[in-house]
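agent> fetching stored inputs for the iron/sulfur cluster docking request
agent> found them:
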Amino acid sequence: MILKAKALLKRYKVRPHPFSLKSLTLTAVNVVDLEIKKGELLGLVGESGCGKSTLGKLLLLLERPDAGEIWWQDTCLTTLSPGKLKSWRRFIQPIFQDPFASLNPKHSIGQILKEPLIVHHLGGEKEREKRVAQILQEVGLPPKIKHVYPHELSGGQRQRVAIARALILEPQLIIADEPTSSLDVSVQAQIINLLLKIQTQRQITYLFISHNLSLLAEIADRIAVMYLGKIIEIMERKDFLSAHHPYTTLLWSSVPTLEQKKLDIPVGEPPNPLHLPTGCCFHPRCKYVKEICKKEEPPLKEIKTGHWIACHLF
Ligand code: SF4
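agent> prediction call returned; pasting tokens
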């Protein structure tokens, strides 16, 4: 185990409309337990707005949880002071969906890549230059690119720079939030292949956040499924295609295949997260709903080795 989240909770106060005097509570991450094993690629999947990006930000300590703990091996990160936390940040690095938004447009690529080394006081100027040249080569970019600015690059090149920036601190865990969804389909495969090559070469652990089930079924070692701020199923890749939770089944039914070009099951909309359902949060959309589902929240339980599910059917 490299990272462990225990009962993570994150809530936001939101106004239902701009003139509203009263604010409501939105629970983005609702008491989540999650373990990331060393060296694995853990996929995190769910519909947009289910809380997977917020969970990613909590694990990166970019946002503080309202409750719960995050453990990095034997260290509880959530109790560290900002000063002490800084030295841990280099071990957990992000790659975001939109590389254009995450790269400073006023800095050259060389400056962008050197900045993390400067912040963490790593190496002198000569070593930093050498490191930038090495990392550009590793992500398949030519050395001269260090002189150009983000707007002069293609989307795929910008995402390679974002990957290089994450790698330059030699992290042990990368949290990649939809790292290919803003790219052309032809470039997506190149970036995925690059990330997988880096994982093999450096033995890096990934938390790979995506809404693309087919992709995770190809590349992930394990997959966690999130719904309305909760993890409702975790399994190994071999069990993903035949996943058991009614929500995971519903997600798979929305993926077009060669035989089935359009959806044959109405997927429905998730409930308003400002008014979470009682009991099982999936019960308003579940075709197997029973009386108990409306009253009691099902705990996450292990139905076979490595396969956890939160559903009263099991
Ligand atoms: Fe459906 Fe009940 Fe299982 Fe929830 S607990 S997914 S409502 S069967």
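agent> quick read of the result: The longest helix spans residues 185-202.
agent> awaiting further instructions
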